Amino acid sequence: MSSAFAGGGKRWTPKSILSLQGYTLQAFSADLIAGLTVGLVALPLAMAFAIASGVPPQTGIYTAVIAGFLISALGGSRFQIGGPTGAFVVIVAGIIAKFGLSGLLMVTLMAGAILVLMGVTGLGTAVKFIPRPVTIGFTNGIALLIASTQLKDFLGLATPPVPSDFFGRMRVLLAHIGTGDWPTVMVAIASLAVILLLPRLTKRVPGSIVALLLGTIVTALLPLHIATIGTRFGGIPTGLPPFALPHLRADLILPLLPSALTVALLAAVESLLSAVVADGMSGDKHNSNVELIAQGIANLACPFFGGIPATGAIARTATNIRAGAKTPIAGMVHALVLLLILLVAAPLARYIPLATLAAVLFVVAYNMGEWREIGTILRLSKADIAVWLVTFTLTVLADLTVAVEVGIVLAALLYIYRVSQTTSVSTVTNKYIEDGRAHVLQDKVVPPYVSILRIHGPFLFGTTDKLAEETTDLNGLGQIVILRLRNMTAIDATGLHALESLAGQLKASGRTLLLCGARDQPAKLLEQSAFVEHIGPDNILPHVDAALGRARELAEGFDGVGREIAEEFRG
């Protein structure tokens, strides 16, 4: 009973507590350096996301301090860094425009409560039922909208109030394109060049923080008369994030509920995706439900300090790992670094040029847009393309909440259609029996250097995590991995992405992936998406008999030694 209780307690224990066992001074030193690095990276992003969302820059820093500390202290990921992200910019700006800051604080509180509920009840796993065309569609749309909101500050345009809708915004910006300010443009281009080119020289120094420092120094020393945080917001207040009770209005709960659900959904998707990326980079395994509870608590706390919605940030989490972080202590240090900047260096922020922050957000928009995925989507079925296009179009032209809702409904209908197509009725003939002999495993000899995985049933969104779970430990697999698709009745964009991820992981580990026995719909989609070229046409086989033959051919080339080396490699 005690061991069961211990296991149950560990199930809900934050990674920060689990990491303290055996914690050393050497680990703390590594966490300190990583936390300092990530804190400096987070500073310009926190301010830029806040300004793009329609709130003062200090609001973004307050959010990064409060949410960043709580997410690291209470979360289920060892390396997660929390704070404001680009995913919320569009919806936060829309909520403020319609309901004001008090409405935003209510949405953040409601979203926090929903996230805690998702974590406690285990509903966090429902996030996997959002198909890839939907996530790519609203990510593309958000990135485009973020970039469009930064054109005014990047070019230094003098315009009347800019509309919140995309076409209205673009009409106003184009009508006043002649009012651009050359000093602003030069600072913006120089900042963009530093952010893009510095990583080619060194990855140890964040390009965004160097651009921020250089832009601030130039603006402070030269009489450029360009827009800065000081000219627009009056600077950033020195001191701790102020505590205040948010004003709650019962009459706004129902009108704000769709927005709260969207914020919670986006927070869950981005935080868990970030945790998965961190697992892949570090070899660790996150706890989804504990992570969602931490995300919820952070969003419940932020409104009391004037903060905006927060979630796990993929780029900052990756930076944390690359900087050498060992435990969640690094994430807590990152929050304390930002707090120290608020207490000591806040007055200097008044010289930060908005053009530099616009350059930072241009790079963020490009990186988060996953633009290369569009080519993959366009090679899929017309239904997948339609789901992506509808989600993207509604995100840009209508509202993110509507886009996500419609995209998920379309994807659900597509899921039902694909599952219905997997049912077939046919007469068993002698030819069917003979053709099936090459697919059966019972009479085959599987060499020790070969591992065979099989997928049974539709491999659609909501099921692809099963492949990831089965291949968590690549060291347990042979040097040649055969993926048997004989009983995989259907596949979609999310399933295809899972196969591509597996192929990449196996290739990086020195292994070879073979596919065999794909049925009509999966085979057609694999060919349309250029997946065949991804692993090589010789590694796509009609049945398992041919796949084992191909494995024997490959084994003969293992360092010129043969199967003995392959067997030793597996052991």
Return the domain count. Answer: 3
**Secondary structural class:** mainly alpha
Overall residue-averaged pLDDT value: 84
Query: How would you sum up the major sheet?
Result: 4 strands, parallel
Strand order of the largest sheet: 3-4-5-6
Cα(first) to Cα(last) distance is 37 Å
Give the fraction of residues assigned to helices. 55-70%
Give the DSSP E fraction (strand runs of 2 or more residues). under 5%
Number of helices: 26
Radius of gyration, CA atoms, in whole angstroms: 26 Å
Task: Explain what this protein looks like in three dimensions.
The protein is mainly alpha-helical and 571 residues long. The chain has 3 domains: 25-368, no CATH class; 373-421; 431-570, Transcription Regulator spoIIAA (2-Layer Sandwich), CATH 3.30.750. The chain has helices at 2-11, 15-18, 25-53, 57-74, 89-121, 132-149, 151-155, 166-175, 182-201, 207-221, 229-233, 253-282, 288-301, 314-322, 329-344, 354-368, 372-378, 382-397, 400-421, 430-436, 465-470, 493-508, 520-528, 531-535, 544-555, 563-570, and strands at 82-83, 311-312, 450-454, 480-484, 512-516, 540-541. Strands 3-4-5-6 form a 4-stranded parallel β-sheet. Helix 22 (493-508) links the parallel strand 4 (480-484) and strand 5. The protein is globular. The protein starts with a helix and ends with a helix.
